[in-house]
Automatic annotation (TrEMBL):
It comes from the Eukaryota. Keywords: Signal. Residues 31-252 form the Calcineurin-like phosphoesterase domain. GO terms for molecular function: hydrolase activity. This is Uncharacterized protein. GO terms for biological process: nucleotide catabolic process. Pfam families: Metallophos, NadN_nucleosid_C. One of its GO terms (cellular component) is cytosol. Residues 352-549 form the Putative 5'-nucleotidase C-terminal domain.
Length: 594
Protein backbone atom coordinates (compact mmCIF):
# COMPACT_ATOMS: atom_id res chain seq x y z
CA UNK A 1 0.00 0.00 0.00
CA UNK A 2 1.35 3.47 -0.80
CA UNK A 3 2.08 5.84 2.11
CA UNK A 4 -0.64 8.25 0.97
CA UNK A 5 -3.31 5.55 0.52
CA UNK A 6 -5.97 4.72 3.09
CA UNK A 7 -6.54 1.33 4.67
CA UNK A 8 -9.48 -0.71 3.40
CA UNK A 9 -12.49 -0.88 5.70
CA UNK A 10 -12.34 -3.54 8.36
CA UNK A 11 -15.02 -6.18 8.69
CA UNK A 12 -15.18 -7.33 5.09
CA UNK A 13 -15.63 -11.06 4.73
CA UNK A 14 -14.29 -13.27 2.02
CA UNK A 15 -14.84 -16.86 1.05
CA UNK A 16 -11.97 -19.15 0.22
CA UNK A 17 -10.95 -19.48 -3.39
CA UNK A 18 -11.95 -22.68 -5.13
CA UNK A 19 -8.81 -24.22 -6.58
CA UNK A 20 -8.95 -26.51 -9.60
CA UNK A 21 -6.38 -28.52 -11.51
CA UNK A 22 -5.66 -25.36 -13.48
CA UNK A 23 -6.17 -21.84 -12.12
CA UNK A 24 -5.89 -18.35 -13.57
CA UNK A 25 -5.21 -14.96 -12.03
CA UNK A 26 -6.31 -12.21 -14.41
CA UNK A 27 -5.87 -8.44 -14.55
CA UNK A 28 -7.01 -6.14 -17.33
CA UNK A 29 -7.39 -2.46 -18.23
CA UNK A 30 -5.08 -1.49 -15.42
CA UNK A 31 -4.25 1.93 -16.89
CA UNK A 32 -4.82 3.25 -13.44
CA UNK A 33 -2.84 1.60 -10.75
CA UNK A 34 -3.74 4.26 -8.21
CA UNK A 35 -5.03 1.17 -7.46
CA UNK A 36 -4.54 -0.53 -10.70
CA UNK A 37 -3.13 -1.61 -13.93
CA UNK A 38 -4.36 1.45 -16.66
CA UNK A 39 -1.46 2.98 -14.73
CA UNK A 40 -2.88 2.99 -11.22
CA UNK A 41 0.23 1.04 -10.27
CA UNK A 42 0.36 2.98 -7.06
CA UNK A 43 -3.13 1.84 -6.12
CA UNK A 44 -6.35 3.82 -5.82
CA UNK A 45 -5.06 6.22 -3.21
CA UNK A 46 -8.45 7.67 -2.35
CA UNK A 47 -10.54 4.50 -2.61
CA UNK A 48 -9.50 2.18 0.22
CA UNK A 49 -11.50 -0.67 -1.22
CA UNK A 50 -9.03 -0.77 -4.11
CA UNK A 51 -5.94 0.49 -2.35
CA UNK A 52 -3.58 -2.41 -3.00
CA UNK A 53 -0.57 -1.34 -4.99
CA UNK A 54 1.53 -3.22 -7.46
CA UNK A 55 3.91 -4.40 -4.72
CA UNK A 56 0.96 -5.96 -2.88
CA UNK A 57 -0.06 -7.67 -6.10
CA UNK A 58 3.46 -9.11 -6.54
CA UNK A 59 3.22 -10.56 -3.02
CA UNK A 60 -0.21 -12.03 -3.81
CA UNK A 61 1.07 -13.67 -6.98
CA UNK A 62 4.07 -15.10 -5.20
CA UNK A 63 1.98 -16.64 -2.37
CA UNK A 64 -0.60 -18.07 -4.75
CA UNK A 65 2.18 -19.58 -6.86
CA UNK A 66 3.55 -21.30 -3.75
CA UNK A 67 0.09 -22.61 -2.87
CA UNK A 68 -0.35 -23.93 -6.40
CA UNK A 69 2.96 -25.75 -6.14
CA UNK A 70 2.05 -27.23 -2.76
CA UNK A 71 -1.24 -28.44 -4.17
CA UNK A 72 0.41 -29.76 -7.33
CA UNK A 73 -1.87 -27.70 -9.56
CA UNK A 74 -1.15 -25.02 -12.15
CA UNK A 75 -1.52 -21.26 -11.81
CA UNK A 76 -1.42 -19.10 -14.92
CA UNK A 77 -0.97 -15.36 -14.30
CA UNK A 78 -2.11 -13.17 -17.17
CA UNK A 79 -2.91 -9.62 -18.23
CA UNK A 80 -5.08 -8.55 -21.14
CA UNK A 81 -3.77 -5.09 -21.89
CA UNK A 82 -4.35 -1.36 -21.51
CA UNK A 83 -1.44 -0.92 -19.17
CA UNK A 84 -0.74 2.41 -20.82
CA UNK A 85 -2.02 5.90 -19.98
CA UNK A 86 -4.23 7.00 -17.14
CA UNK A 87 -2.06 7.98 -14.19
CA UNK A 88 0.89 10.11 -13.36
CA UNK A 89 3.38 7.30 -13.13
CA UNK A 90 2.74 6.60 -16.80
CA UNK A 91 1.84 10.01 -18.16
CA UNK A 92 4.28 12.28 -16.35
CA UNK A 93 7.41 10.59 -17.69
CA UNK A 94 9.17 11.27 -20.94
CA UNK A 95 8.75 9.05 -22.87
CA UNK A 96 5.45 8.11 -21.27
CA UNK A 97 5.49 4.76 -19.52
CA UNK A 98 9.25 4.73 -18.93
CA UNK A 99 8.94 3.54 -15.32
CA UNK A 100 5.70 1.62 -15.68
CA UNK A 101 7.12 -0.80 -18.20
CA UNK A 102 10.06 -1.52 -15.89
CA UNK A 103 7.74 -2.24 -13.00
CA UNK A 104 5.59 -4.53 -15.11
CA UNK A 105 8.62 -6.53 -16.09
CA UNK A 106 8.87 -7.69 -12.50
CA UNK A 107 5.48 -9.35 -12.68
CA UNK A 108 5.94 -13.02 -13.58
CA UNK A 109 3.25 -13.13 -16.24
CA UNK A 110 2.75 -16.43 -18.03
CA UNK A 111 0.84 -14.81 -20.86
CA UNK A 112 -0.09 -11.25 -21.76
CA UNK A 113 -1.45 -9.21 -24.60
CA UNK A 114 -1.99 -5.53 -25.35
CA UNK A 115 -4.94 -3.14 -25.58
CA UNK A 116 -5.89 -0.16 -27.68
CA UNK A 117 -4.10 2.20 -25.29
CA UNK A 118 -0.76 0.62 -26.20
CA UNK A 119 -1.44 1.57 -29.83
CA UNK A 120 -2.92 5.11 -29.98
CA UNK A 121 0.52 6.69 -29.83
CA UNK A 122 3.37 5.61 -32.12
CA UNK A 123 6.09 6.03 -29.48
CA UNK A 124 4.11 4.07 -26.91
CA UNK A 125 3.54 1.24 -29.42
CA UNK A 126 7.21 1.22 -30.37
CA UNK A 127 8.42 1.15 -26.76
CA UNK A 128 5.92 -1.56 -25.86
CA UNK A 129 7.34 -3.62 -28.70
CA UNK A 130 10.99 -2.91 -27.87
CA UNK A 131 10.83 -3.14 -24.09
CA UNK A 132 7.92 -5.40 -23.22
CA UNK A 133 7.55 -7.83 -26.13
CA UNK A 134 11.27 -8.55 -26.20
CA UNK A 135 11.33 -9.03 -22.44
CA UNK A 136 8.35 -11.38 -22.25
CA UNK A 137 9.32 -13.03 -25.56
CA UNK A 138 6.99 -15.91 -26.44
CA UNK A 139 4.69 -15.15 -23.53
CA UNK A 140 3.55 -11.87 -25.13
CA UNK A 141 0.77 -12.77 -27.56
CA UNK A 142 -0.60 -10.61 -30.37
CA UNK A 143 -2.35 -12.76 -32.96
CA UNK A 144 -3.83 -9.91 -35.02
CA UNK A 145 -1.31 -7.05 -34.76
CA UNK A 146 1.73 -6.06 -36.80
CA UNK A 147 4.24 -3.28 -36.26
CA UNK A 148 6.67 -1.44 -38.48
CA UNK A 149 9.73 -0.14 -36.63
CA UNK A 150 12.43 -1.10 -39.10
CA UNK A 151 10.80 -0.25 -42.42
CA UNK A 152 9.22 -3.70 -42.69
CA UNK A 153 6.04 -5.03 -41.18
CA UNK A 154 6.47 -7.79 -38.65
CA UNK A 155 4.24 -9.49 -36.08
CA UNK A 156 3.94 -7.30 -32.98
CA UNK A 157 4.43 -10.39 -30.79
CA UNK A 158 3.98 -14.15 -30.84
CA UNK A 159 0.84 -15.14 -32.76
CA UNK A 160 0.33 -18.51 -31.09
CA UNK A 161 1.94 -20.15 -28.07
CA UNK A 162 1.87 -23.84 -27.32
CA UNK A 163 3.11 -24.83 -23.92
CA UNK A 164 2.82 -27.55 -21.34
CA UNK A 165 1.93 -26.59 -17.77
CA UNK A 166 4.45 -27.40 -15.09
CA UNK A 167 2.36 -29.27 -12.56
CA UNK A 168 -0.39 -31.12 -14.38
CA UNK A 169 1.16 -31.24 -17.84
CA UNK A 170 -1.80 -29.63 -19.61
CA UNK A 171 -0.99 -28.96 -23.26
CA UNK A 172 -2.20 -25.43 -23.91
CA UNK A 173 -2.58 -23.58 -27.19
CA UNK A 174 -2.89 -19.84 -26.55
CA UNK A 175 -3.75 -16.82 -28.71
CA UNK A 176 -3.88 -13.10 -27.96
CA UNK A 177 -6.38 -10.80 -29.71
CA UNK A 178 -7.21 -7.11 -29.77
CA UNK A 179 -10.77 -6.13 -30.74
CA UNK A 180 -11.28 -4.76 -34.26
CA UNK A 181 -9.60 -1.46 -33.37
CA UNK A 182 -9.13 1.21 -36.03
CA UNK A 183 -7.57 4.23 -34.28
CA UNK A 184 -4.11 2.75 -33.91
CA UNK A 185 -1.00 4.69 -34.89
CA UNK A 186 0.18 4.25 -38.46
CA UNK A 187 3.25 2.28 -37.32
CA UNK A 188 0.90 -0.56 -36.35
CA UNK A 189 -1.67 -2.66 -38.16
CA UNK A 190 -4.67 -4.37 -36.51
CA UNK A 191 -6.33 -7.15 -38.50
CA UNK A 192 -9.92 -8.07 -37.76
CA UNK A 193 -10.52 -11.30 -35.89
CA UNK A 194 -12.63 -12.50 -38.85
CA UNK A 195 -9.66 -12.14 -41.23
CA UNK A 196 -7.10 -13.48 -38.77
CA UNK A 197 -8.91 -16.76 -38.16
CA UNK A 198 -8.82 -17.46 -41.90
CA UNK A 199 -5.01 -17.22 -42.00
CA UNK A 200 -3.16 -20.47 -42.56
CA UNK A 201 -1.02 -20.29 -39.36
CA UNK A 202 -4.24 -20.00 -37.29
CA UNK A 203 -6.02 -22.78 -39.13
CA UNK A 204 -2.98 -25.04 -38.82
CA UNK A 205 -2.54 -24.06 -35.18
CA UNK A 206 -6.05 -25.08 -34.20
CA UNK A 207 -5.88 -28.30 -36.22
CA UNK A 208 -3.07 -29.63 -34.07
CA UNK A 209 -4.61 -32.37 -31.93
CA UNK A 210 -1.87 -32.17 -29.33
CA UNK A 211 -3.93 -29.94 -27.07
CA UNK A 212 -5.92 -30.22 -23.83
CA UNK A 213 -7.08 -26.61 -23.52
CA UNK A 214 -7.29 -23.55 -25.75
CA UNK A 215 -6.69 -20.28 -23.92
CA UNK A 216 -7.63 -17.07 -25.74
CA UNK A 217 -6.61 -13.87 -24.04
CA UNK A 218 -7.97 -10.72 -25.58
CA UNK A 219 -8.42 -7.05 -25.10
CA UNK A 220 -11.94 -7.76 -26.23
CA UNK A 221 -15.35 -7.56 -24.57
CA UNK A 222 -16.30 -11.16 -23.76
CA UNK A 223 -19.65 -10.84 -25.54
CA UNK A 224 -18.03 -9.43 -28.65
CA UNK A 225 -18.37 -10.71 -32.17
CA UNK A 226 -14.59 -11.24 -32.17
CA UNK A 227 -14.65 -13.84 -29.37
CA UNK A 228 -17.71 -15.50 -30.88
CA UNK A 229 -15.93 -15.84 -34.22
CA UNK A 230 -12.80 -17.32 -32.62
CA UNK A 231 -14.92 -19.70 -30.56
CA UNK A 232 -16.82 -20.91 -33.62
CA UNK A 233 -13.62 -21.36 -35.63
CA UNK A 234 -12.11 -23.60 -32.94
CA UNK A 235 -15.35 -25.46 -32.30
CA UNK A 236 -15.62 -26.34 -35.98
CA UNK A 237 -12.41 -28.32 -35.61
CA UNK A 238 -12.65 -29.44 -31.98
CA UNK A 239 -16.24 -29.94 -30.79
CA UNK A 240 -15.09 -31.09 -27.39
CA UNK A 241 -11.80 -29.52 -26.27
CA UNK A 242 -12.19 -26.93 -23.49
CA UNK A 243 -11.73 -23.32 -24.59
CA UNK A 244 -11.13 -20.62 -21.98
CA UNK A 245 -11.38 -16.92 -22.88
CA UNK A 246 -10.12 -13.94 -20.87
CA UNK A 247 -11.33 -10.55 -22.05
CA UNK A 248 -11.20 -6.87 -21.29
CA UNK A 249 -11.77 -3.41 -22.73
CA UNK A 250 -15.36 -2.88 -21.61
CA UNK A 251 -14.26 -2.32 -18.00
CA UNK A 252 -16.75 -4.64 -16.37
CA UNK A 253 -16.79 -7.77 -14.28
CA UNK A 254 -18.39 -10.43 -16.40
CA UNK A 255 -18.49 -14.14 -17.09
CA UNK A 256 -19.96 -15.83 -20.13
CA UNK A 257 -20.77 -19.47 -20.72
CA UNK A 258 -20.24 -20.24 -24.39
CA UNK A 259 -20.97 -23.97 -24.16
CA UNK A 260 -20.44 -26.81 -21.75
CA UNK A 261 -16.66 -26.70 -22.13
CA UNK A 262 -16.06 -23.06 -22.75
CA UNK A 263 -16.38 -19.91 -20.66
CA UNK A 264 -15.04 -16.36 -20.74
CA UNK A 265 -14.00 -14.13 -17.86
CA UNK A 266 -13.61 -10.35 -17.81
CA UNK A 267 -11.96 -8.88 -14.72
CA UNK A 268 -13.07 -5.25 -14.46
CA UNK A 269 -10.70 -2.35 -14.74
CA UNK A 270 -8.14 -0.04 -13.15
CA UNK A 271 -6.70 -2.63 -10.75
CA UNK A 272 -9.95 -2.58 -8.80
CA UNK A 273 -10.44 -6.24 -9.63
CA UNK A 274 -8.25 -9.31 -9.72
CA UNK A 275 -10.07 -12.05 -11.57
CA UNK A 276 -9.82 -15.67 -10.43
CA UNK A 277 -10.87 -18.63 -12.53
CA UNK A 278 -10.28 -22.29 -11.86
CA UNK A 279 -11.08 -25.38 -13.86
CA UNK A 280 -11.38 -28.73 -12.17
CA UNK A 281 -12.13 -32.13 -13.64
CA UNK A 282 -10.33 -31.23 -16.84
CA UNK A 283 -8.51 -33.97 -18.62
CA UNK A 284 -4.80 -33.87 -19.47
CA UNK A 285 -4.08 -36.49 -22.13
CA UNK A 286 -0.65 -37.23 -20.75
CA UNK A 287 -1.99 -37.85 -17.26
CA UNK A 288 -4.10 -41.01 -17.43
CA UNK A 289 -5.40 -40.68 -13.89
CA UNK A 290 -6.72 -37.17 -14.34
CA UNK A 291 -10.46 -36.71 -14.58
CA UNK A 292 -12.24 -36.55 -17.89
CA UNK A 293 -13.91 -33.47 -19.31
CA UNK A 294 -17.47 -34.63 -18.73
CA UNK A 295 -17.17 -33.57 -15.12
CA UNK A 296 -15.45 -30.26 -15.82
CA UNK A 297 -16.22 -27.59 -13.21
CA UNK A 298 -15.41 -23.92 -13.58
CA UNK A 299 -15.31 -21.41 -10.74
CA UNK A 300 -14.89 -17.66 -11.10
CA UNK A 301 -14.36 -14.86 -8.59
CA UNK A 302 -13.89 -11.11 -8.76
CA UNK A 303 -11.49 -10.11 -5.98
CA UNK A 304 -11.37 -6.48 -4.84
CA UNK A 305 -7.77 -5.24 -5.02
CA UNK A 306 -6.98 -4.61 -1.36
CA UNK A 307 -4.63 -6.11 1.18
CA UNK A 308 -7.34 -7.40 3.51
CA UNK A 309 -8.68 -9.65 0.76
CA UNK A 310 -5.22 -10.61 -0.47
CA UNK A 311 -4.20 -11.65 3.05
CA UNK A 312 -7.33 -13.72 3.46
CA UNK A 313 -6.76 -15.62 0.22
CA UNK A 314 -3.13 -16.33 1.01
CA UNK A 315 -3.64 -17.25 4.66
CA UNK A 316 -1.29 -14.43 5.69
CA UNK A 317 -1.65 -11.52 8.04
CA UNK A 318 -0.46 -7.92 7.89
CA UNK A 319 3.04 -8.90 9.02
CA UNK A 320 3.49 -12.12 7.04
CA UNK A 321 1.90 -11.03 3.76
CA UNK A 322 4.66 -8.93 2.17
CA UNK A 323 7.36 -10.66 0.17
CA UNK A 324 10.74 -8.91 -0.11
CA UNK A 325 10.09 -8.29 -3.81
CA UNK A 326 6.61 -6.90 -3.11
CA UNK A 327 7.90 -4.61 -0.37
CA UNK A 328 10.71 -3.38 -2.57
CA UNK A 329 8.25 -2.64 -5.35
CA UNK A 330 6.04 -0.65 -2.96
CA UNK A 331 9.08 1.35 -1.82
CA UNK A 332 10.26 1.97 -5.36
CA UNK A 333 6.79 3.06 -6.46
CA UNK A 334 6.73 5.58 -3.63
CA UNK A 335 10.21 6.77 -4.57
CA UNK A 336 9.42 7.20 -8.25
CA UNK A 337 6.13 8.88 -7.45
CA UNK A 338 8.01 11.29 -5.20
CA UNK A 339 10.60 11.89 -7.94
CA UNK A 340 7.81 12.85 -10.31
CA UNK A 341 6.23 14.99 -7.59
CA UNK A 342 2.93 13.20 -8.13
CA UNK A 343 1.59 13.91 -4.64
CA UNK A 344 2.11 17.67 -5.09
CA UNK A 345 -1.02 19.40 -3.89
CA UNK A 346 -2.57 21.52 -6.61
CA UNK A 347 -5.81 22.41 -4.82
CA UNK A 348 -8.67 21.01 -2.77
CA UNK A 349 -11.76 19.59 -4.43
CA UNK A 350 -14.68 21.26 -2.64
CA UNK A 351 -16.90 18.15 -2.93
CA UNK A 352 -17.10 14.71 -4.54
CA UNK A 353 -17.82 14.70 -8.26
CA UNK A 354 -18.55 11.49 -10.13
CA UNK A 355 -18.72 10.50 -13.75
CA UNK A 356 -21.87 8.42 -13.39
CA UNK A 357 -22.62 7.73 -9.72
CA UNK A 358 -24.57 10.99 -9.63
CA UNK A 359 -27.27 12.05 -12.01
CA UNK A 360 -26.35 14.00 -15.14
CA UNK A 361 -26.92 16.89 -15.39
CA UNK A 362 -26.56 17.65 -11.71
CA UNK A 363 -24.49 19.41 -9.08
CA UNK A 364 -22.36 16.37 -8.22
CA UNK A 365 -21.78 15.20 -11.74
CA UNK A 366 -18.28 15.86 -13.08
CA UNK A 367 -19.48 16.31 -16.65
CA UNK A 368 -21.94 19.00 -15.52
CA UNK A 369 -19.16 20.79 -13.65
CA UNK A 370 -16.98 20.66 -16.75
CA UNK A 371 -19.79 22.01 -18.92
CA UNK A 372 -20.79 24.79 -16.58
CA UNK A 373 -17.47 25.88 -15.08
CA UNK A 374 -14.25 24.41 -16.37
CA UNK A 375 -14.74 24.35 -20.15
CA UNK A 376 -16.20 27.89 -20.49
CA UNK A 377 -13.50 29.33 -18.21
CA UNK A 378 -10.45 27.49 -19.49
CA UNK A 379 -11.01 26.84 -23.20
CA UNK A 380 -10.17 30.26 -24.49
CA UNK A 381 -8.08 31.56 -27.37
CA UNK A 382 -6.33 34.94 -27.48
CA UNK A 383 -7.42 35.52 -31.06
CA UNK A 384 -11.01 34.26 -30.92
CA UNK A 385 -11.82 34.29 -27.21
CA UNK A 386 -14.56 36.89 -27.71
CA UNK A 387 -16.37 34.78 -30.31
CA UNK A 388 -19.28 32.75 -28.87
CA UNK A 389 -18.44 29.07 -28.94
CA UNK A 390 -19.67 25.59 -28.22
CA UNK A 391 -16.92 23.47 -26.68
CA UNK A 392 -17.30 19.72 -27.18
CA UNK A 393 -15.36 16.97 -25.47
CA UNK A 394 -16.04 13.23 -25.57
CA UNK A 395 -17.00 11.80 -22.19
CA UNK A 396 -14.49 8.93 -22.54
CA UNK A 397 -11.72 11.50 -22.17
CA UNK A 398 -12.60 11.72 -18.45
CA UNK A 399 -11.52 8.62 -16.58
CA UNK A 400 -12.05 8.93 -12.87
CA UNK A 401 -14.27 10.45 -10.22
CA UNK A 402 -12.93 13.40 -8.25
CA UNK A 403 -12.99 13.06 -4.47
CA UNK A 404 -13.46 15.88 -1.98
CA UNK A 405 -10.07 16.88 -0.61
CA UNK A 406 -6.57 16.92 -2.06
CA UNK A 407 -6.35 17.19 -5.83
CA UNK A 408 -2.75 16.38 -6.70
CA UNK A 409 -0.61 16.50 -9.81
CA UNK A 410 -1.32 12.76 -10.11
CA UNK A 411 -5.08 13.30 -9.89
CA UNK A 412 -4.98 15.41 -13.03
CA UNK A 413 -3.73 12.36 -14.99
CA UNK A 414 -6.16 9.99 -13.31
CA UNK A 415 -9.06 12.22 -14.28
CA UNK A 416 -7.98 13.47 -17.69
CA UNK A 417 -4.87 11.73 -19.02
CA UNK A 418 -5.07 12.27 -22.77
CA UNK A 419 -3.01 14.70 -24.79
CA UNK A 420 -5.73 15.63 -27.30
CA UNK A 421 -5.46 19.17 -28.67
CA UNK A 422 -8.29 21.66 -28.97
CA UNK A 423 -9.08 22.56 -32.59
CA UNK A 424 -11.88 24.67 -34.01
CA UNK A 425 -14.24 25.24 -36.88
CA UNK A 426 -14.80 28.98 -37.43
CA UNK A 427 -18.03 30.86 -38.04
CA UNK A 428 -20.45 27.97 -38.25
CA UNK A 429 -24.15 28.83 -38.60
CA UNK A 430 -25.75 28.63 -35.18
CA UNK A 431 -28.76 26.88 -36.75
CA UNK A 432 -26.41 24.06 -37.84
CA UNK A 433 -24.28 23.93 -34.69
CA UNK A 434 -27.24 23.29 -32.40
CA UNK A 435 -27.88 19.91 -34.07
CA UNK A 436 -24.42 18.53 -33.40
CA UNK A 437 -25.19 17.16 -29.94
CA UNK A 438 -28.02 15.04 -31.30
CA UNK A 439 -25.70 13.79 -34.01
CA UNK A 440 -23.08 12.73 -31.44
CA UNK A 441 -25.64 10.84 -29.39
CA UNK A 442 -26.76 8.77 -32.37
CA UNK A 443 -23.29 8.29 -33.81
CA UNK A 444 -21.23 5.17 -33.17
CA UNK A 445 -17.89 6.77 -32.44
CA UNK A 446 -15.01 6.50 -30.02
CA UNK A 447 -16.72 8.89 -27.62
CA UNK A 448 -16.97 6.78 -24.52
CA UNK A 449 -14.90 4.48 -22.44
CA UNK A 450 -16.28 1.66 -20.28
CA UNK A 451 -17.62 -0.22 -23.24
CA UNK A 452 -16.66 -1.49 -26.62
CA UNK A 453 -15.87 1.07 -29.34
CA UNK A 454 -18.73 -0.37 -31.31
CA UNK A 455 -21.03 -1.53 -28.58
CA UNK A 456 -24.31 -2.04 -30.35
CA UNK A 457 -22.88 -4.01 -33.20
CA UNK A 458 -20.72 -6.15 -30.95
CA UNK A 459 -23.34 -6.88 -28.35
CA UNK A 460 -26.13 -7.73 -30.75
CA UNK A 461 -24.11 -10.17 -32.76
CA UNK A 462 -22.28 -11.65 -29.84
CA UNK A 463 -25.16 -11.92 -27.48
CA UNK A 464 -26.90 -15.03 -28.72
CA UNK A 465 -27.29 -16.48 -25.28
CA UNK A 466 -26.38 -20.10 -24.77
CA UNK A 467 -29.14 -22.28 -23.53
CA UNK A 468 -27.45 -23.09 -20.27
CA UNK A 469 -29.97 -25.84 -19.52
CA UNK A 470 -28.85 -27.81 -22.54
CA UNK A 471 -25.17 -26.93 -22.03
CA UNK A 472 -24.64 -28.21 -18.53
CA UNK A 473 -21.18 -26.87 -17.81
CA UNK A 474 -20.88 -27.12 -14.10
CA UNK A 475 -20.30 -23.71 -12.68
CA UNK A 476 -19.02 -24.04 -9.18
CA UNK A 477 -21.39 -22.94 -6.46
CA UNK A 478 -19.62 -24.93 -3.76
CA UNK A 479 -18.19 -21.76 -2.33
CA UNK A 480 -19.51 -20.88 1.09
CA UNK A 481 -22.85 -19.18 1.09
CA UNK A 482 -22.48 -15.45 1.30
CA UNK A 483 -25.60 -15.05 3.37
CA UNK A 484 -24.02 -16.75 6.36
CA UNK A 485 -21.54 -13.97 6.98
CA UNK A 486 -22.09 -10.63 8.57
CA UNK A 487 -20.59 -7.88 6.49
CA UNK A 488 -19.66 -4.29 6.80
CA UNK A 489 -20.72 -3.47 3.27
CA UNK A 490 -19.05 -0.87 1.10
CA UNK A 491 -20.41 0.51 -2.15
CA UNK A 492 -19.09 -1.38 -5.11
CA UNK A 493 -19.77 -3.88 -7.84
CA UNK A 494 -22.71 -6.26 -7.53
CA UNK A 495 -22.18 -8.49 -10.50
CA UNK A 496 -24.75 -10.63 -12.23
CA UNK A 497 -23.22 -12.85 -14.90
CA UNK A 498 -23.99 -16.11 -16.70
CA UNK A 499 -23.23 -18.04 -13.51
CA UNK A 500 -25.42 -15.96 -11.23
CA UNK A 501 -24.72 -13.41 -8.53
CA UNK A 502 -22.05 -15.08 -6.41
CA UNK A 503 -18.97 -13.94 -8.33
CA UNK A 504 -18.02 -10.90 -6.24
CA UNK A 505 -15.57 -11.87 -3.53
CA UNK A 506 -16.69 -8.98 -1.34
CA UNK A 507 -20.39 -8.26 -1.07
CA UNK A 508 -21.09 -4.66 -1.94
CA UNK A 509 -23.94 -2.28 -1.64
CA UNK A 510 -24.66 -2.05 -5.38
CA UNK A 511 -23.14 0.86 -7.14
CA UNK A 512 -25.72 3.01 -8.94
CA UNK A 513 -24.85 4.33 -12.36
CA UNK A 514 -26.71 7.04 -14.19
CA UNK A 515 -26.70 7.46 -17.96
CA UNK A 516 -24.32 10.01 -19.41
CA UNK A 517 -24.03 11.52 -22.89
CA UNK A 518 -21.33 10.57 -25.37
CA UNK A 519 -20.21 14.18 -25.75
CA UNK A 520 -20.62 17.16 -23.41
CA UNK A 521 -20.92 20.79 -24.41
CA UNK A 522 -19.67 23.93 -22.70
CA UNK A 523 -20.93 27.31 -23.93
CA UNK A 524 -18.72 30.40 -23.72
CA UNK A 525 -18.68 34.11 -24.65
CA UNK A 526 -22.39 34.23 -25.45
CA UNK A 527 -24.37 37.39 -24.73
CA UNK A 528 -26.85 37.08 -21.86
CA UNK A 529 -29.92 36.78 -24.06
CA UNK A 530 -28.34 34.31 -26.46
CA UNK A 531 -30.96 31.62 -26.13
CA UNK A 532 -33.78 33.94 -27.26
CA UNK A 533 -31.56 35.95 -29.55
CA UNK A 534 -28.76 33.67 -30.77
CA UNK A 535 -25.82 34.90 -32.83
CA UNK A 536 -25.86 34.05 -36.55
CA UNK A 537 -22.56 32.19 -36.40
CA UNK A 538 -20.37 30.73 -33.66
CA UNK A 539 -17.12 28.82 -33.32
CA UNK A 540 -17.03 25.11 -32.59
CA UNK A 541 -14.11 24.04 -30.40
CA UNK A 542 -13.39 20.36 -29.82
CA UNK A 543 -10.70 17.74 -29.28
CA UNK A 544 -8.81 16.69 -32.37
CA UNK A 545 -9.62 13.13 -31.18
CA UNK A 546 -13.23 13.62 -32.37
CA UNK A 547 -12.48 15.93 -35.32
CA UNK A 548 -13.45 13.33 -37.92
CA UNK A 549 -16.84 12.93 -36.26
CA UNK A 550 -17.43 16.68 -36.06
CA UNK A 551 -16.83 16.92 -39.81
CA UNK A 552 -19.12 13.93 -40.41
CA UNK A 553 -21.80 15.55 -38.22
CA UNK A 554 -21.62 18.89 -40.05
CA UNK A 555 -21.84 17.10 -43.39
CA UNK A 556 -24.84 15.08 -42.28
CA UNK A 557 -26.67 18.08 -40.81
CA UNK A 558 -26.09 20.24 -43.90
CA UNK A 559 -26.55 17.39 -46.40
CA UNK A 560 -23.23 18.39 -48.01
CA UNK A 561 -19.65 17.20 -48.17
CA UNK A 562 -18.32 20.66 -47.39
CA UNK A 563 -16.58 19.85 -44.13
CA UNK A 564 -13.32 18.05 -43.65
CA UNK A 565 -10.84 17.73 -40.77
CA UNK A 566 -8.36 19.68 -42.94
CA UNK A 567 -10.43 22.82 -42.30
CA UNK A 568 -10.04 22.58 -38.53
CA UNK A 569 -7.21 24.69 -37.09
CA UNK A 570 -5.60 24.67 -33.62
CA UNK A 571 -7.57 26.72 -31.09
CA UNK A 572 -5.07 26.85 -28.26
CA UNK A 573 -1.37 26.23 -27.72
CA UNK A 574 -0.04 22.68 -28.13
CA UNK A 575 0.64 22.33 -24.40
CA UNK A 576 -2.93 23.29 -23.47
CA UNK A 577 -4.18 19.75 -23.05
CA UNK A 578 -7.19 19.08 -20.85
CA UNK A 579 -4.79 17.80 -18.16
CA UNK A 580 -3.02 21.14 -18.17
CA UNK A 581 -6.23 23.18 -18.17
CA UNK A 582 -7.55 21.15 -15.27
CA UNK A 583 -4.37 21.76 -13.26
CA UNK A 584 -4.63 25.49 -13.95
CA UNK A 585 -8.31 25.61 -13.03
CA UNK A 586 -7.84 23.72 -9.75
CA UNK A 587 -4.84 25.87 -8.77
CA UNK A 588 -6.76 29.07 -9.47
CA UNK A 589 -10.28 28.33 -8.20
CA UNK A 590 -10.23 25.54 -5.61
CA UNK A 591 -7.98 26.88 -2.85
CA UNK A 592 -5.39 24.86 -0.93
CA UNK A 593 -6.96 24.50 2.47
CA UNK A 594 -8.14 20.89 2.44
N1 LIG B 1 -6.50 9.96 -26.97
C1 LIG B 1 -7.62 9.39 -26.49
C2 LIG B 1 -7.74 8.03 -26.37
C3 LIG B 1 -8.90 7.48 -25.88
N2 LIG B 1 -9.91 8.30 -25.50
C4 LIG B 1 -11.16 7.74 -24.95
O1 LIG B 1 -10.90 6.48 -24.36
C5 LIG B 1 -11.73 5.50 -24.95
C6 LIG B 1 -11.04 4.20 -25.03
O2 LIG B 1 -10.59 3.88 -23.74
P1 LIG B 1 -10.78 2.42 -23.16
O3 LIG B 1 -10.12 2.43 -21.83
O4 LIG B 1 -12.26 2.19 -23.11
O5 LIG B 1 -10.12 1.54 -24.12
C7 LIG B 1 -12.06 6.04 -26.32
O6 LIG B 1 -13.23 5.46 -26.83
C8 LIG B 1 -12.21 7.51 -26.00
O7 LIG B 1 -13.47 7.75 -25.46
C9 LIG B 1 -9.79 9.66 -25.63
O8 LIG B 1 -10.73 10.41 -25.29
N3 LIG B 1 -8.64 10.18 -26.13
Amino acid sequence: IQPSAQNPVAGQRFRHLEWGLINFLHTTDNLTWGANSHGWHAGHLQEPQYSADFGDYLSLVSHLRNTAEEKGVDLIVLDTGDRAEGNGLWDATDPMGKYTRNFYRELPLDILTLGNHELYNGTTARNEFLEMVSFYEGRYLASNIDINVTGDWEPFATRIRKFVTEQQGFRITAFGFLFNFTRNDKNTRVKTAADTIKESWFQEGIRDTDVDLFVIIGHVDIYSIEFTQIFEAIREVHPDIPIQFFGGHSHIRNFRILDNKSTALESGKYFETVGWLSIDGIKAREAPDSADNTSMVVSRRYIDANRVGYQHHTGKNATTFDTPQGLLMTERLAKYRAGLDLDRLIGCAPQDFSLSKHIYPGPQNWYSYLEERILPTMVYSKERGQVPRFIFINTGSQRSDVFKGPFTYDTSFLVSPFTSKFVHAKDIDYSIAIHLRDFFEKDVGPYRSDKSENPLENRQQGAEEVDIQSSPLLVDHRQASLARHKHTKVIGYATTDDAGTDGDDTIHVPLKRYPTPQVIQGNASFPEDWESNPPATIDLVFFDFIAWHVAAGLNEITGTEDYSTKDFLPYMEQEDTMTRLLLDYVAKYWGRDC
